[in-house]
Structures are given as structure tokens and as C-alpha cells.
């Protein structure tokens, strides 16, 4: 995938170079842990408005905010990137159904 199509050079600089390899590794581990917890709730059939699920959704949002450096333009570009390349999300264990579940849970955050 050509990331230049989705992210400016400055955004890529922030996301990949400023963060550093060790911090990126930490973020990948954190992301995998949150994703696994959300997947468990999804597979159990827990409603997305459940307080435990919305708590996880809040953690998910906070994590994404860290990854995007709080920059709404990076967030929008990332959403477009994953929407147009769903196989990338699936590679990381987030298929369309789980993604929809997370979005529903996020919509219940106060």
C-alpha cells in the first residue's frame, strides 16, 4: 500500500520517525491487548453499550489518539486508509464485524 496516498510526508514523519522503534513496539503490544479484550466481548455476544465494552472502547480511542498525536487529520487519513484497504485491518485481527462493533461501542461513550 502506498502510504503517500493517505498520509502527508509530515504525518509519516510524526507517526514513524518521531515515535521511534521501541515506542512503536510498545504501542503494538498495547494495541494487541486492547483488541484481544474487545474481541473476547464481541465473541461472547456482549452488547456494545455494555459498560465493560464502552470502557474498552474508551481505551481504544485513547490509544488511537496517541498514535495520531491528537491530530484529527492523521485520524481521518488513517480511517480512510483502513476503509480502503480492509485487508490491512484483517491482517491485524480486526475484520469488518469487529470494527463495526468497536464503532458502536465508541458511539456509546459519554
Structural notes for this entry:
It is a single chain. With 110 residues, the chain is mainly α. Helices cover 75% and strands 0% of the residues. It contains six helices and no strands. It has helices spanning 9-18, 21-44, 51-67, 72-84, 86-91, 96-107. Helix 2 runs antiparallel to helix 3 (51-67) and helix 3 (51-67) crosses helix 6 (96-107). It is globular. The model has no long low-confidence stretch (mean pLDDT 88).
Largest sheet, strands/sense/barrel: none
Record field, number of beta strands: 0
What is the helix/strand order? HHHHHH
> Which class of secondary structure composition applies to the elements?
mainly alpha
Strand content: under 5%
State the helix count: 6
Mean pLDDT across residues: 88
Distance between the termini: 35 Å
In short:
With 110 residues, the protein is mainly α.
Defining key terms:
110 residues; mainly alpha; 6 helices; 0% strand; globular
Chart the SSEs and their pairings.
Layout: H1 9-18, H2 21-44, H3 51-67, H4 72-84, H5 86-91, H6 96-107
Helix pairs in contact: 2-3, 3-6
Amino acid at each position: 500500500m502506498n502510504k503517500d496516498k493517505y498520509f502527508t510526508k509530515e504525518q509519516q514523519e510524526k507517526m514513524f520517525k518521531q515515535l521511534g522503534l521501541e515506542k512503536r513496539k510498545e504501542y503494538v503490544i498495547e494495541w494487541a491487548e486492547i483488541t484481544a479484550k474487545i474481541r473476547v466481548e464481541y465473541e461472547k455476544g456482549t452488547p456494545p453499550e455494555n459498560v465493560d465494552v464502552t470502557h474498552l472502547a474508551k481505551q481504544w480511542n485513547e490509544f488511537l489518539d496517541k498514535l495520531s498525536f491528537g491530530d484529527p487529520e492523521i485520524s481521518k487519513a488513517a480511517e480512510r486508509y483502513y476503509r480502503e484497504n480492509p485487508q490491512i485491518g484483517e491482517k491485524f485481527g480486526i475484520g469488518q464485524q469487529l470494527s463495526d462493533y468497536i464503532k458502536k461501542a465508541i458511539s456509546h461513550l459519554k
